[in-house]
Specification:
Distance between the termini: 8 Å
Number of helices: 2
Number of strands: 0
Shape: globular
Length: about 90
């Protein structure tokens, strides 16, 4: 599903770089999170060719409802009236 890819992109580029130890962008940090934060190595990372949904974000969709913390916000249970993109 595209929503899992979207959340995976947010986790890789927003939360994980803060949880991992300091290092060069794209350098191995742990067996679970081999990808570095978004940076010079972002477009050429192994995530790019297999997960094209992460890189281009639709500017017409607000970024806040799709933040990694949205599942934990009871004030955003759903977005009525907004069609779900396939």
């Amino acid at each position: 599903p595209w929503i899992q890819k979207l959340h995976h992109g947010f986790l890789c580029y927003t939360i994980l770089p803060h949880l991992q130890t300091p290092g060069a962008p794209g350098s191995p940090r742990s067996p679970l999170f081999p990808l570095g934060p978004a940076g010079p190595t972002g477009p050429t990372s192994p995530l790019a060719p297999t997960n094209p949904v992460v890189a281009p974000r639709d500017p017409s969709i607000p970024a806040f409802p799709f933040s990694p913390f949205s599942p934990f916000l009871p004030s955003l249970p759903s977005l009525p009236g907004r069609p779900i993109r396939p």
